[in-house]
Amino acid sequence: MGSPMSENLIKAGYDVTGFTLEQEKLDRLAAAGGTVAGSVAEAVRNADVIITMVPASPQVEAVAYGPDGVLENARPGALLIDMSSITPQTSIDLAAAAGDKGIRVLDAPVSGGEAGAIEAVLSIMVGGEQADFDAAKPVFEALGRTVVLCGPHGSGQTVKAANQLIVAVNIQACAEAVVFLEKSGVDLAAALDVLGGGLAGSTVLTRKKDNFLNRDFKPGFRIDLHHKDMGIVTDAARTVGAPLPVGAVVAQLVASLRAQGDGDLDHSALLRAVERLSGAQV
To answer: By three-state DSSP, how is residue 103 classified?
Structure first.
């Protein structure tokens, strides 16, 4: 998601310098008019705003800490916006460590998938100080449509965890409905159209309908990443004493799908798990 987000920042008039480990994405950044850096340290050294977008907490820590990391090379007063989906505690710890260096931090995970990133219509849930949020608002508005400060550091990650819980349960319900409809001999395309127009309609159903119809599971958001996110939400919920009876079941179904070798597929591939349970050879 980082590539289209970078491109939207360039379109909005920002000077964007970027670094990643994937050469093709560096080439893409250069083609879009951005500047390619040779390291994290080089990318952040003169930046007013630093955005990180990596898969999980270990990668955030690898980018942020150490002699070549963000905290040792960003200038005091810089604003670090971490848009990765990680544990709330990782965000809280990062904000504290950055504060010791005079660096401001917002946790700002997003929802909307690759399509939302391309279209600049992401939902951005933010944790941190109001003044920092206000300063970052123009940047967020270049990337998303719904931008909300949810509370202190870590709050954005907590809301993102809840988002991933809702999305996973919703995909699972849609997948079960698809198998039920097909086994009942109903015109699936017609059924999904009418369901999408009623109370059963959802962003998940709208965005994933073609995945279900065409069995197209090219990844927009991979099962591997949703597995990681379900681990975050179940752990965070356990910490605060919030039961997740349905979420826990779906988390196990996601884990099962990953164990069967489908981790690189889009999370709409939960349909494959339901098909296997129904006796289909997938």
So the answer is: coil
Computed over every residue of the chain, the mean pLDDT equals 97
| CB neighbour burial string for 73-93, b if at least 16 within 10 angstroms, e if fewer | bbeeebbbbbbbbbbbebbbb
Tens digits of residue pLDDT in 214-225: 999 999 899 999
pLDDT tens per residue, range 166-216: 999 999 999 999 999 999 999 999 999 999 999 999 999 999 999 999 999
Nearest to 88 by CA among 261, 259, 209, 239: 239
Q: Sign of the CA dihedral 115, 155, 57, 19? A: positive
Residues 6+ apart with CB under 8 A from 93: none
Q: Does residue 160 have an active-site annotation?
A: yes
| 276, 270 Cβ separation under 8 angstroms | no
Q: What is the dihedral of CA 269, 271, 276, 279, to 10 degrees?
A: -150
User: Nearest Cα to 37, choosing from 23, 48, 56, 49?
Assistant: 23
Q: Which domains does the chain have, with CATH numbers?
A: 1-152 (3.40.50.720), 159-278 (1.10.1040.10)
Given 25, 160, 183, 209, the catalytic residue: 160
Stated pTM of the model? 0.92
**For range 237-264, the mean pLDDT:** 96
Is the Cβ–Cβ distance between 84 and 54 less than 8 Å?
yes
Q: What band does 282 get if pLDDT is binned at 50, 70 and 90?
A: confident
In sequence order, the 6+-apart residues with CB closer than 8 A to the CB of 99 are 105
What does the alpha-carbon distance between residue 178 and residue 212 come to, in Å, rounded to a whole number? 7
pLDDT tens string 104-127: 999 999 998 888 999 999 999 999
Q: Can you name the residues that pair with 216 across neighbouring β-strands? A: none
Phi, psi angles (nearest 5°) of residue 107:
-95, 130
